[in-house]
Design brief:
By secondary structure, this protein is mainly alpha-helical. The protein has 2 domains: 1-52, Homeodomain-like (Arc Repressor Mutant, subunit A, Orthogonal Bundle), CATH 1.10.10.60; 55-204, Tetracycline Repressor, domain 2 (Orthogonal Bundle). It has helices at residues 11-26, 33-40, 44-50, 54-80, 84-99, 108-113, 121-143, 149-169, 175-191, 195-204.
Length: 205
């Protein structure tokens, strides 16, 4: 995280850090502006000067939350897995690790969208984040030899998001593993992989 020349976090950084803690833990609709500025240690006028409104703060929080997760996910699958097939399936491994962490509260976008009106900044931020997941799977599927990666990417994205909901709502820490197993089946069908080889790959990964 960047800092000012005095070594202190900027007002924007403090507000976003407070928003990340409070909004993700308790919800964007439950937490009021007064609690955010108190946690950040800034004046209310500063919040409106920096972001203009609570909606803009929520949007910025979601975008930062998503950017942090995207960096973590891509860094880990790149570092751990050599090929596109392994990286594609590795997405679910990294997702499963997130589910076991004490601060996991489900998908930040689903949580924020629960009471959001159509066309809101939250909806826009959510659309961008979800589109990125589809694009990630499409790129990896294409590299793995899938002739038409688009339909498969949408299916894999459904598994990805569904696993997150199951981990949160059902408290099922095995949801990512179940989604990964389904992803193996879909990927093998899309690439025409031999069934025996797919079982071996699923076990060895």
């Amino acid at each position: 995280m960047s800092t000012t020349t005095t070594g202190q976090l900027s007002a924007r950084e403090r507000l976003l850090a407070a928003a990340e803690e409070l909004f993700y833990e308790e919800g964007v609709h439950t937490v009021g502006i007064d609690r955010v500025i108190e946690r950040a240690g800034v004046a209310k006028a500063t919040l409106y000067s920096v972001f203009g409104s609570k909606d803009e703060l929520v949007r910025a929080y979601l975008e930062q939350h998503n950017a942090t997760w995207r960096e973590r996910l891509t860094d880990r699958i790149t570092a751990r897995y050599a090929g596109p097939r392994e990286r594609l399936l590795g997405v679910f491994d990294v997702l499963g690790e997130r589910f076991t962490e004490p601060d996991f509260r489900g998908c930040a976008f689903v949580n924020a969208s629960a009471e959001t009106r159509p066309g809101s900044l939250v909806e826009h931020a959510s659309d961008v984040a979800r589109a990125w997941v589809v694009d990630l799977f499409a790129g990896l599927a294409r590299q793995a030899g899938v002739a038409e990666p688009g339909p498969l990417a949408r299916q894999l994205a459904m598994l990805y998001h569904g696993a997150s909901l199951s981990a949160r709502m059902d408290r099922d820490l095995t949801a990512a593993a179940a989604a990964r197993a389904a992803a193996v089946t879909l990927l093998d069908a899309a690439t025409g992989a031999d069934a025996t080889a797919s079982i071996h790959n699923a076990t060895a990964s």
